[in-house]
Design a protein that fits this description.
This protein is an alpha+beta fold. 47% of the residues lie in helices and 12% in strands. It contains 14 helices and eight strands.
């Protein structure tokens, strides 16, 4: 999955892989039980997350005649093309279409800081309602899982970030990009896909967590909370990581939040142990008799 071979201290051994693998959705053996994220949303109306394809049904004819916009992405100016009506589902691009195009008459947008791999997934979402690998619902297990590529379970889950100087989780970068572009449904979709990959190095997870903190506002805590919960659940692995030690020595807001989350976790565990509902039947009877 990765371009370089992880060191012994920075990667999960086969013994410790279970700390992450057990928290991800299982793979189904029958493809007949799978439905796409968009298909499932049509029947589940009251779920916390309702990913959906941007609605082009009302203006399908206008999309066919919509002007083509050229987008130059990244320092190498990789070219993409998209319909203006499709791009305008993003408030970010809608503002550009209303402003820049009217002033210059040019149908060209430059995004020198964007990653081509990420922008390609954004366009895929705008046109199809999801991005590769698609999120599939296993009806039999009632779980979400990522589609397989011709039977291959390991799908490339990281993208090299020039600013970070290393590999970062693709779904994390997409979440932050969707936040900039004002695509709330894409944010929810990317958040749902977090954690469904396995065999990710500790260093990649911690670098992605720092990226999430640096590229999301304090008011948006969902992605940050995901990483805090992940570290707490897999604490037996992270406490052996040399990268974790170095990151904590550097400090930052993330580790204060982690400290608070751990305290809350311990408080919840302590309160649960003191609850009368967790006592044995004999102890509950004795406690009730003293009232």
């Amino acid at each position: 999955m990765f371009t370089r071979r992880p060191s012994r201290n920075e990667s999960f051994s086969k013994h410790h892989n279970t700390s992450f693998d057990k928290h991800r959705a299982g793979k189904a053996t029958s493809s007949k039980q799978k439905r796409s994220f968009r298909d499932h949303a049509a029947t589940v109306k009251k779920q916390d997350i309702k990913p959906k394809k941007p609605d082009h049904t009302d203006n399908a004819s206008s999309t066919l005649t919509s002007p083509i916009v050229t987008i130059c992405v990244g320092p190498e100016q990789r070219l993409f093309a998209a319909h203006e009506d499709v791009l305008s589902h993003s408030p970010f691009f809608a503002a550009i279409c209303r402003g820049q195009f009217l002033e210059s008459g040019s149908k060209r947008v430059n995004l020198p800081e964007e990653l081509p791999e990420i922008f390609s997934s954004v366009l895929e979402y705008l046109y199809k309602g999801d991005y590769y690998p698609r999120l599939m619902h296993n009806k039999r297990r009632n779980t979400w899982e990522l589609e397989e590529d011709g039977g291959k379970k390991n799908v490339e889950s990281t993208v090299y970030s020039e600013s970070a100087g290393q590999q970062l989780l693709k779904d994390t970068i997409l979440y932050c990009t969707a936040d900039r572009y004002g695509l709330e449904d894409l944010k929810r979709l990317a958040l749902r896909k977090q954690g469904l990959q396995s065999g990710i190095q500790c260093s990649t997870i911690l670098a992605s967590a720092r990226y999430a903190y640096a590229n999301t506002p304090d008011s948006d805590s969902k992605l940050r909370a995901h990483y805090l919960a992940l570290i707490i659940r897999s604490r037996s692995t992270f406490k052996r990581s040399g990268t974790m030690q170095m990151e904590m020595e550097q400090g930052g807001t993330m580790f204060f939040d982690l400290f608070v989350a751990i305290c809350n976790h311990m408080d919840d565990a302590a309160n649960a142990s003191r609850s009368p509902f967790t006592k044995s039947p004999r102890k509950r009877i004795l406690a009730a008799s003293k009232l």
